[in-house]
Amino acid sequence: MNKFEKNVQSKNNDVIDAGLAFVVGFVALAVIYIIPQIFAIVAG
Asked: Where are the transmembrane segments (predicted)?
């Protein structure tokens, strides 16, 4: 066992971190899509 395995900075589950990153990215892209749609509906 090397020194990096003994002194772990984060003990979080990687699946939870990956899922959270996916959700945050999905929400960001959804907002980028939704905002122009709102402007198109209001202007139209």
From this structure: 20-43
Q: Residue 30 corresponds to which amino acid?
A: A
pLDDT digits (tens, 9 = 90+) for 1-44: 777 778 777 778 889 999 999 999 999 999 999 999 999 999 98
Whole-number Å distance between alpha carbons of 39 and 29: 16
Contacts with 4 (C-beta within 8 Å, 6 or more apart), sequence order: none
Distance CA 37, CA 3 (A): 52
Domain boundaries of the chain, sorted by first residue: 13-43
DSSP class of residue 1 equals -
